Inverse folding.
């Protein structure tokens, strides 16, 4: 993708976010509607988008790339977990929980597929879904533990949430049909494609509704600025080096860097509010890093291109 094409893609995504923000400010999308859209996206649209990306011809090179990409993702999660033990020690507890969660959970679950599909087409979505497996596992285990450390954790429920997450189920099914190459009826594949093709517009609308919830003057926060630098610059730089060391292919390397360089996960604000942490600060981290990512993501894409 040329630099102009990349900026055009970023501009399109930004306009979709503005539409979401406008609809939220006008009351067309209410708080309940925002929750409904998020559930629809996470439970149907994104899984369909993932599944359709696996409906390609399977070969050994793809399997090798997926294995290396998965290893890279596991190592990056290990790096994030180690950083969480040292970087935020001086931050007060309510904010520390948010920062630790945001460090291991970027917005790749929402924002990743539109970026990957826009740059690398369906193969990018497939690689993204593989790369996000460790993140989804850590999100529902260690990620939630940051907020519920003082509560009794139902380990069986955590394992069930991980194993039966719709996005992971889509990966299981996608891998099965890609490896076996079993043909599906056309009406099924077309239904999946139609739902999956809603992914970009719907996810960007949701991100826009998040941006609409905070006034610009409320975003000035030194800690949130510092976190944005770590999330958008330091962590993708580590992923860049790691990808070189593992000799990832061009697309796999690009996916690893871009997915690591995504802004803070929107679920941070949800968890912070649910478990009586600093939800306002979590929202600032999400919005600031999202705005700055409009600059950093094209730069990283250019560097890995």
């Amino acid at each position: 993708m040329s630099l102009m094409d990349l900026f055009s893609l970023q501009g399109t995504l930004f306009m979709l976010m503005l539409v979401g923000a406008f609809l939220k400010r006008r009351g067309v999308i209410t708080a309940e509607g925002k929750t409904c859209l998020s559930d629809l996206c996470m439970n149907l649209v994104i899984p369909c988008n993932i599944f359709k990306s696996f409906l390609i011809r399977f070969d050994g090179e793809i399997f090798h790339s997926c294995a290396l990409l998965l290893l890279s993702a596991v190592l990056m999660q290990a790096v994030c977990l180690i950083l969480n033990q040292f970087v935020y020690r001086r931050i007060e507890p309510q904010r520390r929980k948010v920062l630790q969660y945001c460090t291991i959970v970027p917005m790749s679950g929402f924002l990743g597929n539109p970026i990957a599909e826009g740059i690398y087409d369906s193969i990018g979505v497939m690689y993204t879904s593989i790369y996000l497996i460790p993140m989804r596992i850590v999100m529902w285990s260690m990620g939630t533990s940051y907020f519920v450390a003082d509560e009794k954790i139902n380990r069986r429920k955590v394992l069930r949430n991980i194993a039966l997450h719709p996005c992971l189920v889509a990966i299981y099914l996608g891998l099965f049909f890609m490896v076996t190459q079993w043909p599906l009826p056309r009406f099924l594949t077309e239904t999946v494609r139609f739902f999956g093709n809603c992914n970009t517009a719907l996810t960007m609308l949701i991100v826009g509704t998040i941006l609409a919830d905070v006034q610009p003057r409320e975003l000035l926060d030194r800690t949130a600025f510092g976190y944005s630098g770590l999330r958008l610059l330091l962590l993708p730089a580590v992923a860049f080096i790691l990808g070189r060391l593992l000799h990832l292919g061009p697309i796999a390397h690009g996916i690893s860097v871009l997915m690591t360089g995504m802004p803070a996960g929107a679920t941070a604000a949800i968890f912070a509010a649910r478990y009586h942490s600093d939800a306002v600060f979590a929202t600032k981290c999400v919005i600031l890093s999202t705005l700055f990512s409009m600059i950093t993501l094209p730069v990283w894409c250019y560097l890995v291109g």
